[in-house]
Amino acid sequence: MAGYDDRDGKIWMDGTLVEWRDANVHILSHALHYASSVFEGERCYDGKVFKSREHSKRLLKSGELMDMDIPYTVDQIEAAKKQVLDVNGLTNAYVRVLAFRGAGEDMGVAASRNPIRMAVTAWEWGNYYGDAKMKGAKLDIAKWKRPSPETIPVAAKAAGLYMICTMSKHAAEAKGCSDAMFLDYRGYVAEATGANIFFVKDGEVHTPLPDAILNGLTRQSVIGMLKDRQIKVHERHIMPEELEGFEQCWLTGSAAEVTPVGQIGDYHFEVGALTREMSDAYEKLVRS
């Protein structure tokens, strides 16, 4: 497969469709130096982006939290996504919307005089965790911890917040794992590098309280489906030693969808009936 910079197709940049290979930015773009960018990862199923408007609204909220006034409305972002999918002939795809501080008059920490730019891309992408979608992912436990909301805007889907995710996923893959699970700054179970996490015990579901992590849109959808089935959901602080007593585990995210987990560190989980049910139900929901 060609690198992501060397493909056919078109990318939407600042209101204009450009050739994929020409979608470039200047080396002195502020985002490249100071991580001043926010983004959304979305999936298009049979020509429809799941929770598309919710993603666009969250992008604008992330920009607001990062002191970036994104110069597009939800309707304009929606139109850009549709244009990219149509021009590239894609009906089942991953969609990435990125807003970032570009090059301008400022090149220090402050960048209020630099333009806020936006790009929309889309490409075909299979299961995020490969065959783990069927047999269960194996997770490492990251050495890094999710920081306090007093130190970062945890409700923003911001590029800089993924630095420890990249390092942790690299370390996990070096151990033969698919991903890593974070604890937060207090020592509670938090999430994976790009997905929220759920556990099952005695027919009830437990998931970390999203007070130091992103409250994912897929997470919210799955909680809604569980409650529709009259399954008790406990959103709470979870200590790592509790993992020994959980029977099942899964991850949720736009890229991850609903992926079962078979192992976290030394703890093992069955890919059980409820995990399969939620994975199948989510697949039906996104294509409904």
From TrEMBL:
Co-factor requirement: pyridoxal 5'-phosphate
Annotated GO biological process: isoleucine biosynthetic process; L-leucine biosynthetic process; L-valine biosynthetic process
Recorded metabolic or biological pathway in which this protein acts: Amino-acid biosynthesis; L-leucine biosynthesis; L-leucine from 3-methyl-2-oxobutanoate: step 4/4; Amino-acid biosynthesis; L-isoleucine biosynthesis; L-isoleucine from 2-oxobutanoate: step 4/4; Amino-acid biosynthesis; L-valine biosynthesis; L-valine from pyruvate: step 4/4
Lineage: superkingdom: Bacteria
Record field: catalytic activity: L-isoleucine + 2-oxoglutarate = (S)-3-methyl-2-oxopentanoate + L-glutamate; L-leucine + 2-oxoglutarate = 4-methyl-2-oxopentanoate + L-glutamate; L-valine + 2-oxoglutarate = 3-methyl-2-oxobutanoate + L-glutamate
Database matches in Pfam families: Aminotran_4
GO molecular function: L-isoleucine-2-oxoglutarate transaminase activity; L-leucine-2-oxoglutarate transaminase activity; L-valine-2-oxoglutarate transaminase activity
EC number: 2.6.1.42
Keywords: Amino-acid biosynthesis, Aminotransferase, Branched-chain amino acid biosynthesis, Pyridoxal phosphate, Transferase
InterPro entries per the UniProt record, alphabetical: Aminotrans_IV (IPR001544), Aminotrans_IV_CS (IPR018300), Aminotransferase-like (IPR036038), B_amino_transI (IPR005785), BCAT-like_C (IPR043132), BCAT-like_N (IPR043131), Class-IV_PLP-Dep_Aminotrnsfr (IPR050571)
Stated role: Acts on leucine, isoleucine and valine.
Stated family: Belongs to the class-IV pyridoxal-phosphate-dependent aminotransferase family.
NCBIfam families membership: ilvE_I (TIGR01122), PRK06606.1 (NF005146), PRK07544.1 (NF005726)
Protein name: Branched-chain-amino-acid aminotransferase
Organism field: Roseovarius litorisediminis
Taxonomic path: Bacteria, Pseudomonadati, Pseudomonadota, Alphaproteobacteria, Rhodobacterales
